Predict the structure.
Amino acid sequence: MRNKAGGWRLEAGDSELEAGASSASGAPRAGESGTVAALTERELIRRIQAQLPAPPPWMLVGIGDDAAVVEPERNRAEVFSVDALIEGVHFDRAFTPPRAIGHRALAANLSDLAAMGAAPRLALLSLALPATLSAEDFDALVGGVAALASAHRLHVAGGNLTRSPGPLVVDITVVGTVKRRQALKRSGARAGDDIYVTSFVGSAAAGLQMLRAQHHENSSSASTVSSVVERCTQRYLYPEPRIRMGLMLSRNRAATACMDLSDGLADAVRQVAEASGVGAIVDAALLPIDADARAWFEARGGDAAIEAITGGDDYELLAAVRPKLRNRLEAARSGVPLTRVGAFTADRALVLRHAGRDAPLPPGYSHFR
Amino acid sequence: MRNKAGGWRLEAGDSELEAGASSASGAPRAGESGTVAALTERELIRRIQAQLPAPPPWMLVGIGDDAAVVEPERNRAEVFSVDALIEGVHFDRAFTPPRAIGHRALAANLSDLAAMGAAPRLALLSLALPATLSAEDFDALVGGVAALASAHRLHVAGGNLTRSPGPLVVDITVVGTVKRRQALKRSGARAGDDIYVTSFVGSAAAGLQMLRAQHHENSSSASTVSSVVERCTQRYLYPEPRIRMGLMLSRNRAATACMDLSDGLADAVRQVAEASGVGAIVDAALLPIDADARAWFEARGGDAAIEAITGGDDYELLAAVRPKLRNRLEAARSGVPLTRVGAFTADRALVLRHAGRDAPLPPGYSHFR
């Protein structure tokens, strides 16, 4: 039976297609070890609500009606982003804990808000659940979303629950706000602007490789389960969206352009350069590559710089900054490391300066070489 | 390669998981008969943009950045809804044309806005595409969304494209606006209010059964391909969300409560009654069941009234109306048939008056009897 409960819409679908499933509303309640198929949609919603704080005063109609009704924030523009994580495409449940799946799904969206300089406000959570998903894993997934939402004062205003005949799908829409003229676009970079990135690049790509290796080798192997592995895998599993940094950059107008690195630094440099009508030189020697990630790549015969700039899943920010505004940039740092990795150029070429020679910037996070 | 192009975020996912796919940005362009896997994400976005009108002036940053930036409408509250249609759960591609899939996905969302009395404003379109989906079907699906969006002055502000390792998934978030005090809730019905429904009930359920029968019997059978079938199947495939009716009801305050019938009339009566703390009597003799649907149900030994109120996919509205405000209701009709089917009661029971006796209202759109 389909149920709507507020901003939440819960549905099972067409009756005949649905015949194989067992999420009947009259079904017995699952124990902690049961699957979501043994729970009614109302019970699943209650489990979500149990992990959410009380709705803020600007939620005029919350969970329990056809749709959520919200009072917009005065004198702000609104920023919208949607992102889906799909099992078998964006994550592998064999080595990605459900809490990390929830965290990463929301982090990907928050990172887009950060790249616009927006403050997070609300999210809508649309989940397609395989019947075999355990209630415990469901709670952990929702917990991963709820914890990150709470850390960034984002309110989950509603959503949609349905069963999936195949992969687990986590589709999240986020809404943030920004002052009209302070939205950070990709198109403002000018020749001579320096290219900065937050924190490290390549850690998530290394972390994903480590998780896969661990999984294939059997995770009991002491050689891969180490604190070194831990640091990179945590960056892959629990990326920290740079919301505060984005806000500071938009408020103090330090950056002429901004974009997140979800698809890798090479891709971000290319996108900003193309949108801004400029070229770029990235200096491999300047790249902030975590020592653990570098060691991992090099031990496998890889080129750490290439791996780091073409690997995805680093939810860091790239900012274009005029050299004379470097002080503003420093003021916006708020504790996050910032590294200059190159500059935008009048020449439209995209160059990687690496090991003493200039080569074309690789095509970014490409899966098809 | 993952690409973002404005409000659009396009991604393919982790490289290793992705290795089997062929949506390389360097891949050759597909002809009209090619699949989406042969197109780059940029090409897919261009095909979407080609079907969309120019962005309205309140779109401050549109397709081509990390997120969409929008100027909110003054003095209005915002209404948010999200809904996903999943192949194998909510539709069967064997007998649902791609244009209808796109139409239905957006209609389900618009129906939620209608039920709140909201005016549609923007949508975000998140698609997970099987590699085998043809480019032509992709265009038709997007065309179904675009045509309905345009009919309701809704702007597609951005979205997300990813490949799916399994089913086609169409996840849509819509945003509408409503005056603060005019949002139509489920909780306002009072004992004595009449229950009205728009247009017909059960037509979509009959249409779905007809499509399945056609498909199983082979569609060349002249006995089922008739104009009778056509009328019901069109109601299933291309439901018309009651946006104008919802707007009128919210503006003239004719309704004390409102909800859409996506999960069937029995479910809607139950939900509104529960939210409002009242009971209800539905009179089967009053139900507006299309003659074709009635004939279809009865020819198969079904009880037309039961089938019509428990079947889903009718995107009609239920409104609770005080008898003395009946004139306001008439004024809000705007050409859509409106039928009184019963009343809310002080007694909390939910009753179906049918064939001379009172029975409990069936449990709505249940797939698990």
